[in-house]
Amino acid sequence: MAAKRYTSMAYASADEMSFGVSKYPVKAGLGLEIGAGYTIPEINYAPRPAAGASKEKLIKEYEKITTDVMSRMVQVGFPAIILETEHVQQMSNNPSWGAEVAHAQKTIMEEYHDEYGIKCALRHTIGDIRENRDFLQLRGDKYSVFLEAFEECAKSGADMLSVESMGGKEVFDQAILRNDIAGMLYGIGCLGSIDMEMIWTDIAKIAKKTGTIAAGDTDCAQANTAMFIGGGLLDKNLAHTLAVLARAISAPRTLCGFEAGAVGPGKDCGYENVIIKAITGMPMAQEGKSSTCAHSDLVGNLIMQCCDCWSNESVEYHGEFGGTTVQCWSESLAYDCALMNTALETKNEKVLRDLFMLSDRYRDPQSYALAYDNAYKIGQAIVKDGDNIYLRAKNAAIECCNIISEGAAGKLALSRFETKALADAKASLDSLTDDMDKFMDDCLTKYKSEVKVFLPENYGL
Amino acid sequence: MLDFTEASLKKVLTRYNVALEKEMTPEAAAEELYPKDEFVYPIAKAIFEGEEDDVVEGLQAAMDAGKDPIILIDDALMVGMGVVTKLYDEGIIFLPNVMMSADAMLNGIEFCKENSETAPVTKGTVVCHVAEGDVHDIGKNIVAALLRANGYDVVDLGRDVPVDEVVASVIKNKPLMVTGTALMTTTMYAFKEVNDKLLEKGIKIPFACGGGAVNQDFVSQYALGVYGEEAADAPKIADAIIAGTNDIAALRDKFHKH
């Protein structure tokens, strides 16, 4: 079944959006309703590497992690928690491993729910294992193992299913290091969207069959790579104006998951999620100032503006002065949520939302474009040609250029490098065709010749 | 919607990159560094601009005037690339400029090789790989490009490389160092295995590691490990080795930042 494209916005205006409230809340797990008027901490963790030596060791590690988190939430009096288990490769390559981990975790969560009434849910993020040493094999033999990993986890205790899929990355990796806007549009907007539609149609079917939630994907492999390469203010690896274009282009790709059946909450590292929420009205997880254990970014407060679940990205499990890492970070997340929930209960959420947003709005072109009012405009540009995966990606990029240019004419200070990169990108976008078929044909020829690891058959091309 | 006054904004935020920006444009800075030789100048400029066709055109003109193609690699291509890497190190240009220039330079080297029967001499060989179990290779690709841009011969083993294959390649190619990148904490433990197997074979070359979740503390745990915080550290470590700093402790002193 073809995906149902979004051609209109869920919200009539940007100002309607807030944290903790979404148009279409999602019931999940043990008593949770996500996006129904309160925010929820979502703790994410990685086992110590030595724990991956055997299935038994790995399960034991996740049992410790789960118990630590649940006990800390109860000790400090927080009403709700989501645990996100991002699979290590052994768990996705061996679906029974992931399933047994999910079962072990859910058993512990049920005990805490039964005893204390704490609302909780378990997200499992399956690894995109569809690759081998030389190539992505998106439609190859590993696709069935990939889907089996979703189904087994869903049957064994996972409440929400997610993935950070890789479609389009081979072309994007080449393009982002060469200021190649067409390659970014092709890699993220076209190839990535084609792959997203395929996998999320199948994941949504599994969720329906197992009574679980198809929660969503992110363009981590591409837009977050751009953000990571971009780095901080003094790094010279990538102009941040290009990094934010990758982010804008990532939104229509991530949207494909929702068009194919996902219902949220979208994955935490999808910084494009504010755009997705504006278009779909579905709840979203986000990460920012409380994910510095995993990486640095320039949107630490701003990105809380419209979150429904608030995540730390990922932290390796080990001891800190204040307890284990998962205890420390879940407590920090939960205090952030307590503040947002207090604002909601006292009807001050728009003030707090704007304070989050304004404290970072001018920090960087990335934060400026993701401020909820500007993100909403990018969403409008996407749905304008919502039926055309190429044009909506191009529209998002052009709108993003316009937003940054307008900002730079005001209080958003850009370096000369950022300004030049933005002007070059805009000129490149202006020179591109509006004809999707021509664009796809031209890019197929060009990147098949230039990117040796690009296999068109991965995308049915 | 709340917004700042200019005065309030300045109390909350400093855009250090804007405040510190140098006056000179990259093009003007490059112009000051290009050699003035009538044949070398257009080649160096074409490399800076990442124009592969212009590089080949410049090389052809120089060869037509009797210049030796292999000598042109050192005297023109590497000189042009030197301008690029110098301006990158000084923060005047960005990584994509370096990557495009490196593409143009490598294209030029191929052209020179095709027009000569003599093999070019490089600064040395470096073996590069992504840790076993890890398929994220953009960091390794940057490292390899920067090493090549600095005149090193790179043996690129690719991604998800078995430990034994890294060791076998080191034995075969006798590099001055080996590099490893990894995105995930779960895969970077392969570095320790590479380290141990190299030592078993009596090979004590620097093993420069970095990427994603890799940190200095981890790399310091194995005897040959030298941590590179950025990809651009790789050619600097190689240069230091060529200059005589072979001792791992000395390299750590020089490159470990924390």
TrEMBL record, chain A:
Keywords: Methyltransferase, Transferase. InterPro entries: MeOH-cob_MeTrfase_bsu. One of its GO terms (molecular function) is methyltransferase activity. GO terms for biological process: methylation. The keyword Transferase applies. NCBIfam families: MtaB_Meth. This is Methanol:corrinoid methyltransferase. It comes from Methanosarcina lacustris Z-7289. The lineage of its organism: Archaea, Methanobacteriati, Methanobacteriota, Stenosarchaea group, Methanomicrobia.
From TrEMBL, chain B:
It comes from Methanosarcina lacustris Z-7289. Residues 123-258 form the B12-binding domain. Keywords: Cobalt, Metal-binding, Methyltransferase, Transferase. SUPFAM superfamilies: Cobalamin (vitamin B12)-binding domain (SSF52242), Methionine synthase domain (SSF47644). GO terms for molecular function: cobalamin binding; cobalt ion binding; methionine synthase activity. This is Methanol methyltransferase corrinoid protein. Residues 30-124 form the B12-binding N-terminal domain. The keyword Cell division does not apply. Belongs to the methylamine corrinoid protein family. InterPro entries: Cbl-bd_cap, Cobalamin-bd, Cobalamin-bd_sf, Corrinoid_p, Met_Synthase/Corrinoid, Meth_synthase_dom. GO terms for biological process: homocysteine metabolic process; methanogenesis; methylation; tetrahydrofolate metabolic process. Pfam families: B12-binding (PF02310), B12-binding_2 (PF02607).
